[in-house]
Amino acid sequence: MDYNEFYKQSIDDPETFWGTQAKRIEWRTPHSRVLDYSKPPFSKWFVGGETNLCHNAIDRWVDKQGDQTALIAISTETPDAAPVEKTWSFRELQREVERTAAIMQSLGVGKGDMVLIYMPMIAEATFAMLACARIGAIHSVVFGGFAAHSLATRIDDAKPKLIVSADAGSRVGKVVPYKPLLDEAIRLASHKPAHVLLVDRHLSAMERVAGRDVDYAELRQKFMDAKVPVTWLPSDHISYILYTSGTTGKPKGVQRDVGGYTVALATSMDYIFCGKPGETYFCTSDIGWVVGHSYIVYGPLIAGMATILYEGVPVRPDASIWWQIVEKHKVSRMFSAPTAVRVLKKHPSELMRKHDLSSLKALYLAGEPLDEPTSDWIAGELGVPIIDNYWQTETGWPVLSIAKGVQDKPTRLGSPGVPMPGYKMKLLNESTGELCGDNEKGVLVIEGPLPPGCMQTVYGDDQRFVNTYWSNFSNEQVYSTFDWGIRDNDGYYFILGRTDDVINVAGHRLGTREIEESISSHPNVSEVAVVGVEDKLKGQVAVAFVVPKQAETAADPKARLALEAEVWGLVDKQLGAVARPARVHCVNLLPKTRSGKLLRRLIQAICEGRDPGDTTTIEDPTSLDQIRNALKG
Ligand code: AMP
User: Fold this and answer.
1) What superfamily does domain 502-632 belong to in CATH?
2) CA-CA distance, 50 to 29, in Å (whole number)?
């Protein structure tokens, strides 16, 4: 079918389009209305319908293909890096999820209760997510790489009744204890969970808090034969929240529904990812990110596919490990990020070539811009289409891509593609709000209603949802993606970076304000600016410029190095190593406007060797020389 025609239908008559897509999933009660958009920008999809995410991911497949593989958990985080693997059929996964659901119920968790999941990439993490979905509890997964302060902020916002965690994770063979970080986070937070459910991997000794901490294995034994029926939920019941960074230091809880999300994932699995029941899907992301939620846990299972959960790095025991997995499990669709491909590109291609990759039909890449050399290299090695896709935590599924399941439209280098069904995209001039023409740079926005699967609101703060996303242009209410974009004559979009202070390090979204807040808590830091700077491998890295309180620090190379090391330690401890700046430079002055606003874009331009452009608003132009000198030194 002609994609343009198909897309047009989704925009011209969303109710008929999504009403048809809703039939892809099973409902306890069918919807009475496809869409309620009576209170823009809030949209409610499939009003009156009742369904369940876990039912559609597992139960519905148990009768049809109960013995087929559903989950394959592989870890190379083993002492000798040899892969250890365990699989569950749909029937086995159902039983395991019922056990976890029964444990949660025994701890007083039910419909509408919040469960925070802070876990490494182990099967129990997916059981916990699916168990929440089964009983209508709301999960909030926090990326395991985040440290105590980040975790505490999220605990205070989500106010979980239960936290599910583990003794430790492992990174490149090194044990990373989770429990001490979790204890510290709970100590820092004002909210205290009633219980902490702990999976003991016996990697690191744990101290338990009597009355609060409970053991997963012990309780699992108790609920071995538990039967926990699915709780049918109204379509707009909250399925989960997932925190993401923005312009302020306070992360936003992106809130998602049940019905719209399930339908959107089922639709995307067919039209974009072309997944078929019985095939195997391998997404290399982490369950702590949105890609992990949608395309490790829920999407593939909703499509009746087996999904691979991989704990480890792409180059250990060597750079062939992913291709070994593809060969062994006959992976048909794979999803990764450009940074991972750039890492693999540094290793000999023979490692890839020695494997039979004939099962693989396409590689999907997302999370950051895909550059031509990376795309060309991997396309040449794999001989399958490389499909870029652009989206955000907020949207839950691809906004721009190529829907090969509708029409085999060609991809275009440097472009993630064209708008996916239901996304009414526009580019607006940043200052006038006027519509941009072809090949004219503007802010990428989406006209409401957002399609099913996208965020419903900011958890607990409807006003913040409206103010942050829908109030950037005075002439019309549109959703801002905070990305710059450009569209060519044929309707392909190109993404040109963020319009706000969010940076993207190896596909991980980080707020520079959060990093700045952490660094300013150092006793010798009076001011700080953090910017994202282009990096060949990671896309971007964070670079910090600090004004030390003790002026002599800036002049003394030894003291500068010591301060850098202390700042690293501080960020590692508070936010986690993912947020650690690549470099910390000392200056005596930061470029600011006369009203005291930090000019981060000017700093970024200088770091990237670009012309900073108009500097007339700057209070003291010598501050730019300070940045230049700091970079030299
Ligand atoms: P996250 O919410 O962590 O998924 O990050 C979303 C942001 O990552 C977007 O707003 C973009 O800035 C960037 N991004 C995601 N996918 C792509 C892509 N395919 N090409 C360019 N930028 C991307």
Assistant:
1) ANL, C-terminal domain (3.30.300.30)
2) 5
